[in-house]
C-alpha cells in the first residue's frame, strides 16, 4: 500500500508568503492598480492567473495579466538566494519518508523559483516527485494539482494526506478526496482553515513533526 504525503511549499515548508505579498503588491502598483496587502495575502496559494482574477475581477484588462505576472516573478526572484525554510521542514519530510510515506511537493512554483524553494528545504534526498504549475491546466483551489501529485505518488485518495497553509490548499484537497492538514505558518487564521475543510491544524512543520504519532498521518496508516 503506497501512502502519499503531499505538501504545498510556500508558507507550508518555506517562509515566503509575505515576500509574495510584497512582490504582488508592487507588480499591481506598477500596472496602475491599488490592491490592499491583506487581500493579496488571502489570495496566496492560487495560481497566478486565478490570483489576478480573484483580486482584479473578470472585467479587468486581461492584456495586463502577463506583465503583472512577469513583474511579480522578477520582483520575487530577488529573494531566491535567501529564502528561509520553516523550522524543521526538512526533518518533517525525512521523518515521513523514513516511515514509508512517499513525499511529493504540489506547488504553483516552477523553474528557477521551484529550484530555489527546494534548495531552501534541503531535503531532495526524500522528495519523490514534484507537481508544479507546468504540469497542470488549473491551479488550486481546483483539485487538479493535488490529483496530479497523488498520481505521481501512485497512491489512492484514502492513503493520501495533503499539508498546506491556505484555504485554497484545503479546498483543493477536499475536492480531490484526500485528508487535508493545515499549518498556521502561512498567516491564515485557524478558523478560516477549518471552515475550508482542514481535518486538523498545527502551528508549523516543527509542531506537526512533534505531533506525528497522533496526527492524520497516523490515522491513515492505521486505516482509521
Automatic annotation (TrEMBL):
Pfam family, one: Hydrolase
Source organism of the structure: Streptomyces tsukubensis
Gene Ontology cellular-component terms listed: cytosol
One MF annotation (Gene Ontology) recorded for this entry: phosphoglycolate phosphatase activity
GO biological process, one term: DNA repair
Keyword Glycoprotein included in the entry's annotation: no
Name by which UniProt lists this protein: HAD family hydrolase
SUPFAM superfamilies: HAD-like
Keyword field contains Hydrolase: yes
Keywords annotated in UniProt: Hydrolase
InterPro entries noted in UniProt: HAD-like_hydrolase_sf, HAD-like_sf, HAD-SF_hydro_IA, HAD_sf, PGP-like_dom2
